[in-house]
């Protein structure tokens, strides 16, 4: 029986990075999953939560719980939004409350995309090919909140033709996005981004991939503004052959 996956699209993927969501669907279906996209889903509530609006975040969380209550597996192309559900939702409700019990039930079946593929499906080789040098940006929430460093790299290491290159301080230096942080602390965010971009360009990478749309929008925008040859893509795009070869970059 195919695993039934409910795709938790996330706001950024829905609004400004739809190619990542489509690539995630394509990849999951290729691996034998039956994918549905619950139409009632909205935000996970992280922007409100991070800004101190707990009541508003609580209402959004209740809606998320209702939307995905029948899901067998919940998979998201975002480590950040996945960590909101798995790590921070429990902070919004009293222990032992109906919501807390539902959070525990659904969080146990919620996965970031690469985690689901590697740890639940048991796959690292998905038949991907790419001729060029690839850098992996370890996004903060996936790395620090979910404790995941192996699944994305495991998938990238099996991409035929690709050379995985290292980035200086890849797991210790943030890209500077941080959601509302990049708006409230714009100058500091920009300085952090400049450091990350310099490290990316020094790595010799043709493209950089990550598992979070926010980081990719921040990094990709910075690379474009400085006229860099490096391009930013969601890891699902690379794994589904949607990333052009280096000589195709304009």
Tell me the layout of helices and strands:
Blueprint: E1 4-7, H1 11-15, H2 18-30, E2 34-36, H3 46-50, H4 54-67, E3 73-76, H5 79-88, H6 98-107, E4 110-112, H7 113-120, E5 129-136, H8 140-145, H9 150-157, E6 160-165, H10 181-184, H11 186-202, E7 207-210, H12 213-225, E8 231-234, H13 235-239
Parallel strand pairs: 1-2, 1-3, 3-4, 5-6, 5-7, 7-8
Helix pairs in contact: 7-9, 11-12
What does it look like?
The chain has helices at residues 11-15, 18-30, 46-50, 54-67, 79-88, 98-107, 113-120, 140-145, 150-157, 181-184, 186-202, 213-225, 235-239; strands at residues 4-7, 34-36, 73-76, 110-112, 129-136, 160-165, 207-210, 231-234. The protein has 250 residues and is an alpha/beta fold. Helix 7 (113-120) crosses helix 9 (150-157) and helix 11 packs across helix 12 (213-225). The longest helix is centred in the C-terminal third of the chain and has 17 residues, at 186-202. The N and C termini lie far apart (44 Å). The mean pLDDT is 95.
Summarize the structure.
The chain is built from 13 helices and eight strands.
CATH top-level class of the largest domain:
Alpha Beta
- Distance N terminus to C terminus? 44 Å
Number of helices: 13
Quaternary assembly: single chain
- Counting structural domains, the number is 2
The whole-angstrom Rg is 18 Å
Q: Largest sheet at a glance?
A: 4 strands, parallel
Query: If classified by CATH, what would the architecture of the largest domain be?
Result: 3-Layer(aba) Sandwich
Number of DSSP strand runs: 8
Strand order within the widest beta sheet: 2-1-3-4
CATH level 3 topology of the largest domain:
Rossmann fold
- The ordered string of helix (H) and strand (E) elements is EHHEHHEHHEHEHHEHHEHEH
Low-confidence stretches: none
Proportion of residues in helical segments = 40-55%
Tell the overall outline.
globular
Q: What is the average per-residue confidence, as pLDDT, rounded to a whole number?
A: 95
SS content category: alpha/beta
């Amino acid at each position: 029986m195919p695993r039934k996956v409910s795709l938790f699209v996330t706001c950024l993927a829905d609004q400004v990075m739809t190619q990542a969501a489509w690539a995630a669907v394509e990849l999951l279906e290729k691996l034998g999953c039956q994918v549905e996209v619950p139409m009632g889903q909205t935000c996970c509530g992280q922007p409100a939560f991070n800004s101190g609006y707990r009541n508003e975040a609580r209402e959004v969380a209740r809606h998320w719980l209702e939307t995905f209550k029948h899901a067998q597996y919940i998979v998201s192309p975002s480590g950040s939004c996945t960590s909101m559900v798995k790590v921070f939702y429990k902070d919004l409700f009293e222990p032992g409350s109906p919501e807390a019990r539902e959070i525990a039930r659904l969080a146990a079946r919620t996965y970031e995309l690469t985690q689901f593929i590697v740890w639940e499906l048991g796959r690292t080789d998905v038949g991907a090919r790419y001729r060029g040098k690839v850098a992996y940006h370890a996004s903060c929430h996936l790395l620090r909140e979910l404790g995941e460093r192996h699944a994305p790299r495991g998938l990238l290491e099996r991409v035929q033709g690709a050379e995985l290159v290292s980035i200086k301080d890849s797991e210790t230096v943030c890209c500077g996005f941080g959601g509302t942080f990049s708006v409230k602390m714009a100058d500091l965010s920009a300085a952090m981004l400049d450091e990350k971009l310099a490290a990316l360009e020094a790595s010799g990478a043709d493209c950089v991939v990550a598992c979070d749309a926010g980081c990719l929008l921040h990094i990709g925008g910075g690379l474009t503004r400085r006229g860099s040859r490096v391009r930013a893509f969601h890891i699902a795009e690379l794994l589904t052959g949607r990333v052009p070869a280096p000589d195709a970059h304009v």
